[in-house]
Amino acid sequence: MTKLSLTELWQFIRYLWPKRKTKYGLFLILTSILLISSFTTIDLITQKIFLGVLVVVVCVLWLFVSGRIILPSKKITIAFALKAIKPASQTIIEESIIKLKEKLNQIRASERFRIIEIGSDLFSTNEQAEKYIKKKKIRLIIHGNIWNEKRETHYIFDLKNFFYSFIVNAEKNSQEFFLKLADIQLAISNRDWQIDEVNSLRDLEKVSTNFVEIILSIVAICFSTSEKQEHLSIALIEHILPLLESHITPEERKIQILENKTAKISINLLRSGRLKTILHGRYLDVGYRLSLSGKYQESFLHYKRALELGVSPIDSLTGLAITSFYLNNTGGAIEYTEQIKKYNEHHRVYYVNMGFLMIIKGEYDKAISFYDNFRKRFRSSQKENVSFAKEIIKFINEQLIKRANEYGLLFAKGIITYNFISKSDGRIILQEFINRAENIDKYKNMIAKTKKIID
Q1: Does the pLDDT value for residue 185 go beyond 80?
Q2: Mean pLDDT over residues 75-80, rounded?
Q3: Distance between CA 428 and CA 287 in Å, rounded?
Q4: Crossing angle for the helix pair 200-222 and 230-247, to the nearest 10 degrees
Q5: Is residue 305 part of a domain?
Q6: Does 231 lie in the same domain as 92?
Q7: ∠436-438-441 over CA atoms, to 5°?
Q8: φ, ψ at 154 (rounded to 5°)
């Protein structure tokens, strides 16, 4: 007969303890209560009343403990339903979750999450897990089996055989839906989930870091296009990026161009790059909405953060130029617009911004040159140019209300309308410019240019 050591006995008790959250565990608890009650000496009626109350209390508590009932919370609920196949694996599950909570606390993200453990028998497939998520309003469930094998005198634990079930905030089968799934798959892929008993502290740190990165990535990606959760998505990515960046070695930062003209990029760099792109998009979206509501200083700061990421500098610089102008910093608007030339010296935003800003500065000859370049280099046959032109005209109309005596703005509006939207409407606006500015000397070159165009 094999004897159990105290360590093995304690390990076995820890292995059994989580099973209290399963139906099998409830059955054992109730059976134990009935067995114990059979040895009591109290009268039968009292015994039945006490037993009935105890069974009800135990069943109600079990519903909460097992995850059948989950109380609502303002925090994001992440549930673990990991099942230890052998007693030794249970210790690793417990220690991994403890480490995860410590790591979330270290990066000051713990106040945003509620980590719970639920019964491993609640579902057996991803489909069942997804139904459970929707019903209980849980953001993410990590579920599956944890295996271990003995090698000589120590154990190797493998945590890779589990699944992630989550709700994607996007219309199913849409482009956005598949893009989010691809980003989440990238966050999950190619991670080391082995824990060697000999190096358990080091390996637990590695596994808990994996969990943190994956949990924060999945939640941030799922919320990345939600206006209601945009600040949460931003905060989570800001938390996770330093972690991801810390994994990238100098060698991994090098992108290799192969003979077939494809690029070879390390997965760590790719993971970080995708989250930077998502964060950049969120900064731009929030910056734009803040600008629309007149919160220009806050908008400026979001565009500044977007620029610091280095993902799409022209979009960031465009936002910085516009908000600088609204903040009465024309010099700053010119400076940020000039920086666009570093990335594309013939960008349409560069020509249009500089043309407008030169009118504001009273440098009308320079304005003519910039608008000429815009007309020559871009065509109305391209839909994106027409859409861009309409946005510019909307902006100029706003400025015409504030600067009714700046007739140069009529010139700008007429030129853009004539070339990109409607020649007849453009002629009317340009003729209005001539009528108002004909006797004003500073506009004489603009008038000459206008007459040449409409003739």
Answers
A1: yes
A2: 91
A3: 35
A4: 140
A5: no
A6: yes
A7: 115
A8: -140, 170
The answer to whether the beta carbons of residues 97 and 116 sit under 8 Å apart is: no
* Nearest-10 crossing angle of helices 87-106, 200-222: 60
Contact 142, 118 (CB under 8 A): no
The answer to whether 337 touches 317, Cβ cutoff 8 Å, is yes
Grade residue 1 by pLDDT with cuts at 50, 70 and 90.
Answer: very low
Clarify whether residues 216 and 116 are in a common domain: yes
Question: Does 406 reside within a domain?
Answer: yes
Structurally, how many domains does the chain consist of?
3
Do 60 and 97 lie in a common domain? no
Strand locations in 29-98, DSSP E? Answer: 76-84
Contact assessment for residue 238 and residue 230, using Cβ atoms and an 8 Å cutoff: no
The sign of the dihedral angle between the CA atoms of 243, 245, 248, 249 is negative
pLDDT at residue 70 in the model: 93
**Both tokens assigned to 254:** 């090098």
- Residues 265, 42: Cα–Cα separation, whole Å: 74
Residues 432, 328: Cα–Cα separation, whole Å: 28
State phi, psi for 216 to the nearest 5 degrees: -65, -40
420 CB neighbour count, 10 Å cutoff: 24
CA-nearest of 42, 113, 123 to 82 is: 123
List the domain range (segments joined by +) for residue 84. Answer: 70-247
Sign for the CA dihedral angle at 93, 210, 183, 232 comes to: positive
For residue 49, give Cα distances in angstroms to 33, 40, 53, 63, 318: 13, 13, 6, 21, 75
**Per-residue pLDDT, 4:** 56
CA 288 to chain centre: 17
Q: What is the pLDDT of residue 83?
A: 85
Would you give the distance in Å from CA 348 to the centre of its chain?
A: 30
User: Contact at 8 Å (CB) between 76 and 222?
Assistant: no
Percent of the chain at pLDDT > 90 equals 49
Token pair 């409407």 is found at 425
Do 240 and 213 form a contact (C-beta atoms < 8 A)?
A: yes
Q: From CA 97, how far away is CA 142, in angstroms rounded? A: 11
Q: Give me 90's structure tokens.
A: 């249970």
Q: Which two tokens stand for residue 154?
A: 């120590």
My answer on whether 62 and 74 are in the same domain is no
What amino acid is encoded at 207 in this protein? V
Task: Write down the pLDDT at residue 304.
Answer: 97
Do 43 and 187 lie in one domain? The reply is no
**Tokens 């989250």 — which residue?**
275
